[in-house]
Specification:
The structure holds two protein chains of two kinds.
Chain A (H helix, E strand, L loop, with lengths): L22 E10 L2 E11 L4 E6 L5 H8 L7 E6 L2 E3 L4 H6 L2 E4 L11 H6 L11 H14 L15 H14 L4 E5 L7 H16 L3 E6 L2 H7 L2 E6 L2 E7 L6 H9 L17 E12 L2 E12 L3 E5 L6 H8 L7 E6 L2 E2 L4 H7 L2 E4 L14 H5 L11 H14 L16 H13 L8 E5 L7 H16 L3 E6 L2 H7 L2 E6 L2 E7 L5 H8 L4 H4 L1
Helix pairs in contact in A: 13-14
Chain B lengths: L4 E7 L5 H25 L4 H14 L1 H25 L8 H19 L5 H30 L3 H21 L35 H18 L1 H11 L1 H6 L4 H25 L9 H4 L1 H11 L4 H24 L5 H22 E7 L6
Antiparallel strand pairs in B: 1-2
Helix pairs in contact in B: 1-14, 2-3, 2-13, 3-7, 3-10, 3-12, 3-13, 4-5, 4-6, 4-10, 4-12, 5-6, 5-10, 7-8, 7-13, 8-10, 12-13, 12-14, 13-14
Classes of the chains: A alpha/beta, B mainly alpha.
């Protein structure tokens, strides 16, 4: 442990004698109905530094960021810009003070070109746009920070990483001195993350301030000059010094207890084949979504599918679950064909499916936990809730779901608890005992504490002999849990490796569509 | 400079129970206030008018039985609308399905009435009327479940066709439904075996109790059965239904057909009850449209529809009698109905949001 200021420090953390911070928040309070989202939070960022806001979901970091850029107004407390008090009534006011936010979900017009998107919202445009001049201006701004973009390209044709660059260029073009990046790496592949971090350095070199919002410990340590940790709306620690922090300490500040996220592999020899996929192809509207996929998953084994979102993962899962009929190829569970026979048939053979979309697909938001447990079971003509009620109570206890009881509405559960309800239902078996579990992004959006629980549950299921197909965009997760890893790129399996000997660089390259030959 | 006031809508985390009762109640009160303004503007005393309506609609014994009699058909169209609405299927053609129920019921009564005893005839008339009502929504249900065509447009337009059909059957010479040698075109009365008499010589018919039973049965179906569970899943998240292997098309189809049948039942109730014949006067009464308002006021809760249906029947029958006893325009009842719908829908905002005004702070620059 280092002697950096790990103690809970109330009040802004000022480097002694330094220039006033670029932007400071003083004792900010923000309430939402029933929630104290920010409880006298102090935060500041200096010119030319990366200051990270770290916290679990619901810790209040997005709320704070929204107030820093003018999206929300604080209930109490105030902001200062270069030492002067300011009030931001709108994001436009924020921009006028040189503060811009790059949102996690991009706000770009897909049909417009890069340059058109960048100038969108500028108020000093003439009636007739001189496109080539504008494109030159946009290109000049981009180049000065080493952000290669093509101003004439249509946004719809760009990759996620490129779109993010457009958002950043847009902020810089609008004169941003302080950029708030909200979970910027959530959508990127490893190579793109590296590129983003280079851009961040270029910007701080030029004197810009970056507020980096994240809950991924590894990257936070890599990029940050200072870290402010939030928990339950309060600042639990200011940690300073690049590379001097270790992730365990940050995790403790974030969650309030020690966290163990370790590698887990099958401890037993795997059994017979439970899931068999042969030459599976799917074409939707003339576009090939999955092509020639073949693999097996054995009892007691976890197979991980890595890939960037939108490369066919969702369709693969839906096809296995019987929700989509493949164009060609076959799927068998425990030796029985399930192709074209619908989700109920697949479930009768022992399938359990945790879809990526929890509320709205896996769970019915307006229904109680009890009714949601019934969703994938045989319900009879008159729904018998009285016999399921004790089981619901037992599952709530066993899975440590924070709820008022079986009648708690699904919509009112936190993300982590909703996921636990979904896992509780799918793991406990419905029409028959679960043999095959298909899980999509099981820990996405969950906080570290919940991630730990969910991973342990998956590991238990594996030890109990269930075959598990783990489909996740979180590469770390796939790498640290899977016994075998397949990489899905544009609907094809482009890489296969045992989990133990998987290399981050190789798998990452495969996710980006680079075969080993291309790389060398 | 004074800082501007902004109205802030904050979504409620939890809808307080008392609001579910208070909002509909206040909608009615607000509608009465608006009605009072109109009465004042046209030179009538609101207090006197309302107290007359109250006694004609509710507090006198004659008024009460008239109200319950009228509520029979209104509860039918109310549960018809609610049954579809609860699955976000907007069947607003209950009016037309009601006409078809009348046509079907009258046909059954006239065609079979002489051959069968009453205890067989009454169920037959009600059943044929319901089937006729369902037939009128068959096409909208089919194109909605297969092609996603808006049922709002199709059910509404079919209502106009249904109205023309009623007129055709009554006014075309030699029609099966009319008295042969009458100078004045008029529907033929169904035989005695196909008609009920009012309880104790009032306009309250035994069908009232049947309809109450049906409303309570639907309440139970929706809350307790697999069918109701399925409806709830589909209406909330179609993707969850797909995930669970629930066939949404088939359920859409059946829910719409049942909704049509319930409106049709309302038409048949009029045949065995007060009307006794196919009467083109039904077109002016708007009982089917009233069902939409009744369902909205009760927020599609089947047991609450019994209450809102009776309330509406009271307003209508009280309003109708005003014109006879005083010279207050008959339309006050209809106007109140419209105002209640408006306030009930507007009141939803109060149920869902916590609405308050705030003074925004000015930037101190």
């Amino acid at each position: 442990m280092t002697n950096a200021s790990h103690e809970v420090a109330k009040g802004p953390h000022h480097a002694s004698g330094a220039a006033p911070s670029a932007l400071s928040a003083h004792s900010i309070v923000k309430r939402f109905p029933g929630v104290l989202a920010n409880d006298s939070v102090d935060f500041d960022v200096l010119p030319g530094e990366v200051h990270t806001l770290l916290g679990e979901n619901g810790a209040g970091k997005s709320t704070l960021a929204a107030m820093l850029c003018g999206l929300y107004q604080p209930d109490a407390g105030y902001l200062t810009r270069n030492g002067e008090r300011i009030a931001l009534l709108s994001p436009r006011a924020g921009l006028q003070h040189g503060i811009a936010m790059v949102h996690q979900h991009f706000r770009l017009v897909e049909r417009f070109t890069v340059a058109e998107n960048v100038i969108l919202g500028s108020r000093d445009l003439s009636y007739k746009l001189n496109r080539s001049e504008l494109e030159d201006k946009v290109a000049a701004v981009a180049e000065s920070y080493g952000l290669p973009i093509e101003p004439g390209a249509t946004v719809a044709d760009l990759s996620v990483g490129q779109r993010q660059r457009v958002e950043i260029v847009k902020a810089l073009y609008q004169g941003a001195e302080i950029l708030l990046l909200d979970e910027p790496t959530a959508v990127l592949v490893p190579a793109e993350v590296e590129k983003l971090f280079e851009n961040v350095h270029a910007m701080t070199q030029a004197g810009k301030s970056i507020v980096f919002i994240s809950h991924k410990l590894g990257e936070v340590v890599e990029i940050s000059d200072r870290v402010t940790v939030l928990r339950n709306g309060r600042v639990t620690g200011h940690v300073s010094g690049r590379g001097t922090t270790d992730t365990k300490e940050l995790a403790r500040l974030m969650v309030g207890r020690d966290i163990e996220l370790t590698t887990q592999r099958a401890s037993h020899a795997t059994g017979h084949e439970i899931l068999q996929i042969r030459d599976l192809s799917l074409t939707v509207g003339g576009v090939s979504v999955l092509s020639d996929i073949s693999f097996n998953v054995h009892a007691g084994e976890m197979v991980g599918i890595a890939g960037v979102a939108g490369n066919g993962q969702r369709e693969l899962a839906d096809t296995i679950a019987g929700l989509i009929s493949p164009t060609s190829g076959s799927i068998a569970i425990s030796g029985s064909m399930t192709t074209d026979r619908g989700p109920i048939h697949a479930r009768e053979l022992g399938l359990a499916y945790v879809p990526e979309d929890r509320l709205g697909m896996g769970l019915v938001p307006s229904m109680s936990i009890l009714d949601n447990l019934l969703l994938t079971r045989d319900r009879r003509v008159v729904v018998d809730r009285t016999t399921v009620r004790p089981e619901a109570t037992r599952l709530i206890e066993q899975f440590e779901i924070k709820a008022n009881g079986p009648d708690h509405m699904a919509r009112k559960l936190s993300g982590g608890n909703a996921q636990k309800v979904l896992l509780a239902r799918e793991l406990s078996g419905g029409r028959t005992a679960t043999k095959l579990l298909v899980v999509c992004s099981p820990t996405r959006g969950l906080d570290v504490g919940a991630i730990e629980t969910v991973r342990a549950l998956l590991d238990d299921a594996r030890s109990a002999g269930q075959a598990i197909l783990l489909i996740s965009e979180d590469l770390d997760e796939v790498m640290s849990l899977s016994d075998r890893i397949f990489v899905l790129y544009r609907g094809s399996v482009v890489h296969e490796t045992p989990g133990e000997s998987a290399e981050l660089a190789t798998v990452g390259a495969a996710m980006a569509g680079l075969t080993p030959e291309d790389k060398s | 400079m004074r800082s501007p006031i902004r109205i802030v809508f904050e979504q409620r985390n939890e809808t307080a129970k008392h609001l579910s009762v208070l909002v509909p109640l206040l909608s009615v009160v607000a509608a009465l206030v608006v009605g009072a303004l109109f009465l004042l503007a046209t030179g009538y005393s609101p207090l006197e008018t309302y107290s007359n309506m109250l006694s004609d609609g509710f507090t006198s014994s004659r008024g009460m039985t008239d109200t319950l009699g009228l509520s029979t058909v209104l509860i039918c169209t109310g549960i018809s609308a609610a049954f579809a609405f609860q699955m976000n299927l907007y069947n607003i053609g209950g009016e037309g399905q009601l006409y078809l129920g009348m046509i079907g019921g009258a046909w059954a009564g006239l065609a079979l009435g002489d051959q069968l005893p009453t205890f067989v005839m009454i169920p037959v008339v009600l059943l044929v009327g319901s089937l006729a009502g369902a037939s009128w929504i068959l096409l909208p249900a089919f194109v909605r479940s297969r092609l996603g065509t808006s049922e709002i447009v199709t059910t509404l337009l079919l209502t106009y066709i249904a109205a023309s059909l009623v007129k055709h059957f009554v006014y075309s010479p030699g029609s099966f439904f009319v008295t042969k040698n009458s100078a004045f075109p008029q529907g033929r009365l169904v035989p005695d075996s196909a008609s009920l008499s009012g309880i104790g010589d009032t306009s309250l018919y035994p069908t009232f109790f049947l309809v109450i039973l049906i409303a309570l049965a639907l309440f139970w179906v929706v809350k307790k059965t697999e069918y109701g569970y399925r409806i709830q899943v589909i209406s909330d998240s179609p993707r969850a239904a797909h995930y669970a292997g629930i066939n949404a098309n088939r359920t859409t189809m059946s829910v719409m057909l049942i909704s049509g049948a319930l409106s049709g039942l309302g038409g048949a109730v009029l045949i065995v009850g007060p009307f006794g014949r196919l009467d083109p006067g039904i077109i002016l009464l708007g009982y089917g449209y009233a069902g939409i308002v009744i369902a909205a006021l009760a927020r599609n809760n089947f047991s609450a529809i019994i209450v809102s249906g009776i309330l509406f029947a009271g307003l209508r029958s009280g309003g109708d009698k005003l014109q006879i006893s005083t010279d207050t325009p008959i339309h006050i009842g209809v106007m109140l109905q419209g105002a209640i719908l408006l306030f009930a829908l507007g009141g939803e905002a109060f149920r869902r949001y916590h609405i308050h005004a705030v003074r925004t702070e000015r930037a101190t620059q």
